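Researcher: Here's a chain I'd like modeled. Treat it as a single chain, no partners, no ligands.
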Amino acid sequence: MPPTHSRIVLVSGSLRARSTNGAVVQTAAALRLPGIAAVVYDAIALLPHFNPDDDFAPLPTAVEALRAEIAAADALLFCTPEYAGALPGSFKNLLDWTIGGEELYTKPVGWINAAAAGRGGNAHDSLRKVLGFAHATIVEAACVEVPVARDAVGADGLIADASIREQIGRALVALRDGAAASLA
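Model: Modeled as a single isolated chain. Structure tokens:
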């Protein structure tokens, strides 16, 4: 049985205003599914460039906040685009800051690929590799392709399409269940 609420932190790997990845994250937060407290982490642009020389106390404030957010999470859901065949630099920077801490260690994680069918695979292959270095627990049922066209994003930044919302919801439920299983 899942815990009363699983706190799932949602992270978009895109800095672009009105990105489809950001829309997936915002829509996931807006679904308000039973047993899920979805929280959007939206401070990726505030993180300093990763430098191993700076990965010690006192950490930069934005890094401290990131690690606290991850530590407080029961699971994380990422949604990132692919730029130039790989993870976007700002998102990889966020991931680099997680390696020095233990917050992601065995934490259930998943991701949604919002790119058009057949695209984005390199970024998600890289994400899987980096999450392996962080020793995160990948919840396969929460790693899904949910193509989102730009015109599917409304003026409010959310996705109204019921089919897309259902697929996002299934990924969240898989993470909730993965978090519950990790506590059992």
